[in-house]
Amino acid sequence: MKIGLVFMSMMVMLTIAGDSGVIVAQNRPADATEVAFRVLSAQARTFDKPIRIGPPKRAIEYREAVVLTLEVDREAFDALSPSMEAFLYIGRNEYRIFNIDRRDDRNTLLLTFHIRNWPQLRENSPMVLTIEHGAPIRNPERFERRQGPRLNKRILGSSPN
Question: How far apart are CA 23 and CA 20, in angstroms?
Fold first, then answer.
């Protein structure tokens, strides 16, 4: 009788663990490393006050940047691993998210990036939003050959306002 009760308890625990594992797998695909996006706007700007990012001793300061706004599917973006920050790669250049607009219950999010070195970007470079840090730099051929968003420098503008 004791053995049957222990076995039944183990089966219940395995069933619960299995069910929650299925839910997690559905909500957070293990292989999701990239998110599709749409470029909404790109505008060269001069800021009234310098923007400072990073810790004080290593802070980066700038007054000019292209403010690039991307639209992503909220569910796809939130399905990325929460322990990894998503970066935007344009060719071999890496950019961190400056702001995430989550103001309402839309199905999309707006991600804002500040592109400080926009004049040096190469035309037609692949654009990738990924948590696979460094992959477009280490293995550019993988991203160069495939279909996907490409940089069109005309959308970036040439001089800040």
Answer: 5
